[in-house]
Amino acid sequence: VLGMLNIRFKEKGDELRAHCMSGTHEDNTPSWFINKNSGMFQCFSCGYRGNLHTLIKELTGQTLYEYLQIDNPDEYMFKAMLTKKKKRIRKIPTKLKITGDILDPHSDKQVMEYLRNRNIDDQFINDFHIKYCNFIVINGTKFRNRILIPIIVDGKILSYDGRTFTDDKPKVLYPKGTSLGTLFNIDNLNFDKELILVEGIMDMVKIYTHITKNVTTCFGINLSNKQIDLLENCQHLLVIPDNDKAGKQFISLLDKHMNYEYKIGFLESKDPGEASVEELKNTIQNAKLSIDYIIEKSGLFQSEEIKWRIK
Ligand SMILES: [Zn+2]
To answer: Boundaries of each Zinc finger CHC2-type domain copy (predicted)?
Structure first.
């Protein structure tokens, strides 16, 4: 983005430093800082701040799409808007009413086979308190032969992700009236570090086991307002969508609601569960800000031209 706007900058860790573009003061010692992960900027001299979309609008008088002469933004998957407003809904978690036995997966061969086939090791089972049932009722919802993964917030079980290990329908079941307005494993996530977001719990397994513990899921692609709020608290978000139509919807939904920039890592494989650890590592390494994908895809600015630096 800065290259496109002919802004020279210095790079130091996650921060880029440049001469302030507010036009309100001389800025001989660059005091304007742009965060590489969130795209948010701030001048420590005059307080000029905003995000990359507001910057493009202010410097060019045009939106990103106008500036790049893109008249078919729908094809770009990212529907970046200038101002995004949303309603906030708060839900009070319901208490769970459970009848029946919750069992240890190690006591059933078929359950263990299911888990091992999905590369789930004992640490993953223990860390996420994974159990199973033959038959239980939670809040009136019947669970038959399902792996039970508790969704915990502030140490309390808010809901259960109940997935069949006998190919039953639906694949995943949640108890009636329970709230999924959270991120999986939220009690242990670090919002100050790079946080990786995937579509489902099974997509987390290889990343959690081999790459980083700071990985989460929002239980499918339909984000709630509460989940958007939580994701916006994370300034180093890296999303790895499934490589399918739903994955594209997921990104366009995120882009519509998030005020911060975030990185996206696109997979060659179908989803993070099928990708090798090597592919996942490369995908995380090569992830880019969504806004940079738009500029790149427009073809108007080649990466060689946009390597501006303060000498
Ligand atoms: Zn300034």
So the answer is: 25-72
* Domain range annotation of the chain: 9-61, 92-179, 181-298
Q: Compute the distance from residue 69 Cα to the ligand 1 centre, in Å.
A: 29
pLDDT of 132-160, one tens digit each?
A: 999 999 999 999 999 999 999 989 999 99
CATH topology match: 9-61 vs 92-179: no
Using alpha carbons, list the distances in angstroms from residue 292 to 2, 113, 174, 205, 225. 10, 42, 37, 28, 26
Q: What is the CATH number of domain 92-179?
A: 3.90.980.10
CATH number for the domain whose boundaries are 181-298: 3.40.1360.10
* pLDDT on residue 77: 63
Distance 34 CA to ligand 1 centre (A): 12
Ligand 1 centroid distance, CA of 16 (Å): 14
> Where residue 254 falls among pLDDT bands split at 50, 70, 90?
confident
Q: Collapse the DSSP code of 73 into the 3-class scheme (helix H, G, I; strand E, B; otherwise coil) and give the result.
A: helix
Cα 7 to averaged position of ligand 1 atoms, centre (Å)? 14
- In total, the chain counts a number of residues equal to 311
